[in-house]
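Dear colleague,

Following up on Tuesday's group meeting, I ran the structure prediction for the two-component complex that the binding team flagged. I've pasted the input sequences exactly as they went in, so you can double-check that nothing got truncated or mislabelled along the way. The C-alpha cells for the whole assembly follow below. Feel free to forward this to whoever is handling the docking comparison.

Inputs:
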Amino acid sequence: MTELTPTLTASNLTKTIGHKTIVDSVSFELQQGEIFGFLGPNGAGKTTTIRMLVGLIRPTAGSVRICGYDIQQNFEDAMRCVGCIVENPDLYRFMTGRENLEHFARMLRVSNSEIERVADAVSLAHRLEQRVGTYSLGMRQRLGIAQALLGNPKLLILDEPANGLDPAGIREIRELLRRLAGEQQMSIFISSHLLAEIELTCDRVAIIHKGRILREGSVRDLISSRRDMELRVDDVPRASVIARERNLTFRTDGDRIWLAMEEADAPPLLSALAEAGVKIFHAQRRAQSLEEMFLEATGGETVD
Amino acid sequence: MLIPLIQNETLKIIRRKRFAVVIAILFVILALVTYSQYRRLREQQNRNWRAEIQQRVANFQNMMRRGRLNESYARGLRAEAGRLQFYLDHDIEPDKPTGPLFVRGFANASGWLLPLLVAMFGADIVSAENAEGTDKLLLTRPVRRWKILTAKLLTLFMFATLTLICGAVIAYAISSPFLPSGGWNAPTFVGFQLSGNSVSLDSVRQLPLWKDTMIAYGLQWYALLAVAAIALLLSVLFKSSAAAIGTMLASLIGGTILTRISPDWTAGKYLFVSALPLADYYTGQPPPYDGMSMLFCISLLGAWAIVATTISYAVFTRRDVFG
C-alpha cells in the first residue's frame, strides 16, 4: 500500500486549566479505514480529548490535523472531513428526526437525498417523521450516527456509540462501522467503556488514564501478549494442589481455576488431574480480556 | 452563505413555539385594551370631548400644585398638560378612540411591552443550545463560529421586526370591528419640549397621523434591535436559558423602576432602559433625566448594542465548550 496522510493526527495534545493538567501530551494517529478505540475511566481526559479533536476546546499545547488540515488554521476544511457525536447524542428534541437531519444537511450544504441514505444506514427511516423527544436513547444514538454520516465524512468520531442500544442494536451498529471502515475506507474513532465491544470492533486501542496514554497498540498484539488456561472442575482445592506441585501460577474463583501456561503443558496437566480423580467439565485456552489488561494498566481502577 | 443558517435558526424559534407565545400575548393584551377603548367610545358618545380634556388638564394642574410629587412623575404631568392644552387651543381631539390612533398608541406602549417579548426568544437563542447540549453538534460542523452567531443575531433582528409589525397589524385588525377605522390623515402635533416648568412650543410641527405613526414605529424598531443585541449577549454569557431570560427581564423592569424612582441619580441616564421608550420621548414625554435629547438616546442605544455585540462575538468565538 502507498503511504497516505493519516486521517487524524493528534500531536502532543495538552489541556491545562488553572494548575490542573487534564490532558497531558496525548498523541496518536488514525490511518484510512482503521477503527481506533479510546479507553479510559471517567475523568481520565477522554471527553476533553475528543472535544479538542473537534474544535470545541482549544488545546493549551499541541495540534490536531484532520485529513492534513490543522483544525485551528483550517477549521472549515478540517471539519468537512468529520462526523461526530460528542458525549450524548443531543439533538433538537422539539424537532422531528427529519428536521434535525435537514438542519445539519443545510450546514454541510449536502442534498436531501443524503438524508434517506443515512437514515437507511442506521435503520431509522420509519421513525423520521416523529419528534426526537419521543425517541428512546437507542433511537437518538442512531439519529446521532446518521447525522454524523451526512456528507460522507472520511473520519467518524463517536463517543460511546453503544450507549442505550440493545444487544441486537449494538451488533447492527458494529457491523455498520466495520462495513464503513472496510468498504468506504472511513477511519473511525470510538470511545467506549464496553471493553468487549472495543475488542470486537476496533483494530487498535489506546488506554488513557489521568490524562496520559498508558498503552497503545493493535488489539491483537495487546491481547495475545498473554494467554491463560481456564478449567471448570468439581474439586478446586485438589486441582490447586496438583497445579502447585507443577509450579504453575494460577488463581481460582468458585469452581473455576485459571492457569498461566504454555499450550504444550496442557495435556500432561489434564492427564494428571484425571488420574487424581478430579472431574474436568470444561477446559479452554483464553486470551486475557481487554478488561483484565485495562485493570492491570490503570492499577485496578474501574472503567466508567 | 448565511441564508441556510438563518433558515435553521428561524425553524428552531418556530418549533420551540416561542414566537407563537409572543403572538398570543400580543393578541390577549391588545384585545383587552381594545375592549376598554370600545367602552370609552360608547360612554363618550354624548359627551363633549373639550370638557373632558379640560377636566384632565385641570386635574394635572391640581396634582402639581399640591406638590410632593416625584420629580420625574411631575415632569410627565407637566408635559402632558402642555400637550393637551395645545390640542385644545387648536380645537383637535387628541386621543379619540379610533383604529389608527389605537395603532399609533401601540407604538408608545411597545416601548415597555415589546422589549420583554423580544427578551423571551432573544435571551434563549444561544443559551438553549448550551442547555440542551446541541451546541456540540452545531459547533462541530464545517461552519465558523462567527457565522453561526451572525445568523443568530440576524434571525433575532428579523423576529424583533416581525414582533413589532405583528403588534401593529393585530392592533389594527382587532380594533377595526369596534373602533372607527378611518383617520390616517388626521392632524397630529409633534415636537413638544419641556423646558423648565413650561412646555416649549417652538418646535411643534403638524403631521398627518400616518407619517407620525411611521416615525414612532421606526424609532421603536431601532430600540428593539438594541434590545435584541443585548439579549444576545446575555444568551451567550449564561448557560441556562432561564437565567438569561430572567436577567434580561430583571434589567428591563428593574432598570425602568430605578430610573423612575431616583431621578437624582443622574448616572442613570446612561442605562439603556432610560433610552428605550423612544416613541414616548418623540410624542412629548420627557425622558427621566436632563440632557437626554433624542440624539443622545439614539446614540446611547447604538453604543450599548455595539458593545454588547462585540462582547458576544469575542466570547462566543473563543470560548471552550465544556459539557
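DSSP finds eleven helices and 14 strands in chain A.

Cheers,
M.
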